[in-house]
Amino acid sequence: MAKKSLKKDDKGCWEKGNCEEPDHFGPLFRMPNKGQFKFSMWYFIAALLVMMIFKSLYQPVPDSLIGFSDFKKKIESGEIRQVQMGENYYHGYTSEADGRKTAYRTVPVDDPGFVALLDQKGVTYHRISEKPNPFASFLLSWAFPLLMIFFIWRVLFQRMGNMGQNVLTLGKNRAAIIAEGDTGVQFADVAGADEAKEELMEVVDFLKNPQKYTSIGGKIPKGVLLVGAPGTGKTLLAKAVAGEAGVPFFRISGSEFVEMFVGVGAARVRDLFKQAQEKAPCIIFIDELDAIGKSRINVLGGNDEREQTLNQLLVEMDGFDSRTGVIILAATNRPEVLDAALLRAGRFDRQVLVDRPDLEGREAILRIHSRDVKLGKSVDLRLVARDTPGFVGADLANLVNEAAILAVRRGRDEVEQEDFHEAIEKVIAGLQKKNRLISPDQKKIVAYHETGHALVAAFTPGADPVRKITIVPRGFGALGYTLQIPTEDKYLLTEEELYGRIDTLLGGRAAEELVFGRISTGAANDLVKVSDIAKRMVTEYGMSKKFRNVALNHRQPGIMGMAAEPQGGYRDYSESTHSQIDQEISDIVASRYKRVTDLLSEKKDLLEKVTSRLLEVETIDEKEFLALVGKPA
Ligand code: ADP
Ligand code: MG
Ligand code: ZN
């Protein structure tokens, strides 16, 4: 019976917040049980101390203050048998043996005959000091207040999220070291991320045979950054790398670093690297790198602690030699907020994109997660994969789980296709609420749009060849590209190539307009790029009709050969020239758009053909595309 499904080991991870598994070192670090035990022990000790203090302070309080003459009378009558003479008071006791029974107290009067009277009556007497004993006074004036402060402090920090412990172990990093192979994850457990896996194989190989690389003098990656939407399997991949290589795996989450007290995070980073170097070869995995790695510029007010931690991380990464066999993996779903310094050479200079799975990938992931689930004959995982575009690995794991639960609820002992259907509806409803999925209508628009780009590229001289068309939503825009260092000024581009780029970019919108008769916002990004290219052609490259061979913008030489943005430079033309430039730009765009529209209407059949194939398989590679459009590969 659907064993796995009931274990609930796969969380329905749609959002970053609830997607993270419990940290390996979190519980260990905080020691919740032990901490609680210690805490109540402290209470006990404190109570004991308080009792002792009161006990030591406790003096039998004389019950009645009487006049000196009465006191004397009681001595004379023989009632008082013992007298203690203090500075401010005399104490009288009725019994010699047990001086505690009944007592009188009086304020003494200067009476020279008093001692004689005592002698005469045979009353024992001695002088006493009324000052409380020094130990008790020490406790009262120092130890007790300190103790109180300590307790208040503790209780406060306990409330502020277990900070007490953290502060007590300042800087000591309790990352659990998971011994060899302990991650228990292999590459076979990760499906649909073939490109990422391929890149990570290299890391595994290095960890297994470092000498192979070092003897040749080859450069070993220091840091590898896994980039992808939540739930695409970044954490899983990192674990798989450790599992495959059979090396210790230090996992820590970026948010763990961000502590309250300045300096704690930095100390922890130092500690982590020290530990790791002792255990080399090993992997340090920093999950949610964005929590510490946020750009230092764009933060209002800044955050000293995070900045210190980030700086320490940079220092450590620069400081250690990758030949020692420590490789740093990190994961983020928001690479755009990362500080540029992190992505520089010698740090996380290698970025691996963990894409959302396509049809094939989804089927493979479903297979992995239904390994331990009893599937009925009616189940066709291919069909399930087809019905779940946009799902990431975590969603699919959740889906299998839901289907199994539904089957159990219906009293079946096998999961049927019907259960999957219902589970899909349920999960999709949840995802749509979170704006994570696009509707079939939108998907169609996207497919025509992308095919439009591809077809124009294929039939435009000077355009870059098409490598891949995909409608698998990325969830974070053109993320894979934002990560690249801008190459704008690196290449020498001909006029034809520039027009090729413009045409290709316009192909998306042109296809939409051609097919649907209306346009969408999907082309916004393309249009920004188009305008930028056209503007440069006119103002910098002298490629317009009117300003042929005239450079209107003077780019300021930037730092280290990188050109500054033209906006940052200066322009030396008049307002009327300005409006002519605008006219030139829109002329270029308009004439290219006309060309692209004509081209696509001529190739309407191909547009339909490629689009329907794309809707079917979601991703078309270069080879298939060329075959579809009938061009030699
Ligand atoms: P991320 O770190 O990218 O947010 P996780 O690695 O935490 O995602 O994935 C959460 C869970 O989803 C994993 O434990 C696994 O069960 C499942 N999962 C995600 N991606 C895949 C995949 N490519 N193959 C198999 N299972 C996956
Ligand atoms: Mg993760
Ligand atoms: Zn586009």
What does this 3D model show about the protein?
The protein has 26 helices and 15 strands. The protein is an alpha/beta fold. It folds into five domains: 27-52 and 135-168, no CATH class; 60-132, Signal recognition particle alu RNA binding heterodimer, srp9/1 (2-Layer Sandwich), CATH 3.30.720.210; 176-353, Rossmann fold; 359-429, Helicase, Ruva Protein, domain 3, CATH 1.10.8; 440-629, Peptidase M41 (Methane Monooxygenase Hydroxylase, Chain G, domain 1, Up-down Bundle). The strands form four sheets. A six-stranded mixed beta sheet has the order 6-8-9-10-7-11, with helices on both faces. The chain has a five-stranded mixed beta sheet with strand order 1-4-3-2-5. A hairpin with a 4-residue loop joins strand 2 (82-85) and strand 3. The longest helix has 28 residues, at 575-602. Mean pLDDT is 77; it is low at 1-38, 161-173, 175-180, 475-490 and 557-569. Adenosine-5'-diphosphate (ADP) binds next to helix 11, helix 16 and helix 18.
- Tally the helices: what do you get? 26
Rounded to the nearest angstrom, the radius of gyration is 39 Å
- Poorly predicted regions: 1-38, 161-173, 175-180, 475-490, 557-569
β-strand number: 15
Oligomer: single chain
Class derived from helix and strand content: alpha/beta
Q: Quick one: biggest sheet?
A: 6 strands, mixed
Q: Would you give the CATH topology of the largest domain?
A: Methane Monooxygenase Hydroxylase, Chain G, domain 1
**Total count of domains:** 5
- Percent of residues in helices comes to 40-55%
Q: Tell me the overall shape.
A: elongated
